[in-house]
Amino acid sequence: MPDDQLIEFVEQLSGEVHLRVEESLGNGFVRLRSAEAERRQAKHDIQHIEDIVIEMLRNARDAEANQVFVATHREDALRSLVVIDDGKGIPADLHKKVFEPRVTSKLDSMIMDSWGVHGRGMALYSIASNAEKALVKASAPELGSALVVEADTEKLPERSDQSTLPELRRNSLGALEVGRGPHNIARTAVEFALAEEQALAVYLGSPAQIAATLLDFGQRSLKREELLFCKDVRMLPIVQRLAPAGDSAELQNSCADLGLCISERTAHRILAGQIEPLEPLVKSILSSAKAARVSKGLPLKDSRGLQIAQEDSERFARALETAFEVLGDRYYLSLVDLPRVRVKGNSITVRFDIEKD
Questions:
Q1: Domain identity same for 16 and 62
Q2: Rounded distance, CA 68 to CA 83, Å?
Q3: Looking at the structure, do residues 280 and 348 belong to the same domain, yes or no?
Q4: 236 three-class SS
Q5: Residue 300, domain member (yes or no)
Q6: What is the tally of structural domains in the chain?
């Protein structure tokens, strides 16, 4: 009897329990079969739409991508995500297998980052287990990848506020970090972009914005003769495949090949320059913050660490010496020397060397 018929026969006799349980241990305890344990782990790995975003970004990073383009769109309860990168790519015969459990390209490596362990071969399987659709739309070795995921937000929730971008601030060492803002898709992408800013750039926007950005990227990175005499865009890296489009219909079709669904009218607007290409996400947020401060008549923040002139530092120390008399008179203390003022990054620390009277 063939294996599939045997499985069907067992299911009819004992239901799904037999296929899910390897051993009954008594008192209600069982040992699950590996496949069932993996299925449950996959469900647990993805709790929100934002979890899908971070897993897809980590996959692009692990594929050694330098540029990652994330297009996101929601219609009713369906959230669509398209992630396009210029990484190593996936062979055609593995386009479906990468969504199976324990399939990974990282046999000899495993990455531990801020989001946990990566390299178990479970990320894409977890995504597929929680999404309505998950597929490799386009990919080939050394040409990058375009992955499409669609998820039902009534089954897999997302943050209610997806329009607010997070604020960026500098910590005491002068490094950028995420400040206030909802823990939405944008924040997830920004946190990843900051963590990996030395390795790659992340672009985030609507399908139309990402299409405009890819068109601009391809036109700037390809030589003129490559654009004019390109006979088959499938031979180009995926992030450059929109560049040779000669009209709106051709651009629309090229976008569809990557999973970017736009109308021909939108394609025409992109070619006409009416939809501007995006800046990398972190740079875009910084630019928006500066523009907002200018529009309000506020001075721009200096991105460098705080600097104070020596004479101002001494004047400040003398003022603190006078102010210290409040404590000195009450607790019988005196200063050994002027207060020491130290500036580091965006912080000021003051040291008082004292002695008891």
A1: no
A2: 7
A3: no
A4: coil
A5: no
A6: 3
Phi, psi of 166, rounded to the nearest 5 degrees = -70, 155
Helix (H, G, I), strand (E, B) or coil at 16: coil
Q: What is the DSSP string of 164-223?
A: PPPPEEE-TTS-EEE-SS-SSHHHHHHHHHHHTTTT-EEEEE-HHHHHHHHHHHHHHHS-
CATH, residue 197: 3.30.565
pLDDT digit string, tens, across residues 305-349: 666 777 777 788 888 888 888 888 888 888 888 888 887 767 788
Note whether 284 and 209 are same-domain residues: yes
Residues 6+ apart with CB under 8 A from 84: 68, 69, 70, 71, 144, 145, 146, 147, 210, 214, 238, 239, 258, 259
- The pLDDT value recorded for residue 312 is 77
> Residue 39 in contact with residue 128, Cβ under 8 Å?
no
Rounded to a whole number of angstroms, the distance between the first and last alpha carbons of the chain is: 98
- 14-49 b/e (C-beta count within 10 Å ≥ 16 → b): eeeeeeeeeeeeeeeeeeeeeebebbeebeebbebb
> How confident is the model over 185-205, as a mean pLDDT?
95
Q: Which residue has the tokens 């020596």?
A: 310
**Are 19 and 91 part of one and the same domain?**
no
Pair (199, 333) in one structural domain: no
Domain span at residue 16 reads 3-32
In this structure, are 121 and 51 located in the same domain? yes
Beta carbons of 202 and 280 less than 8 angstroms apart: yes
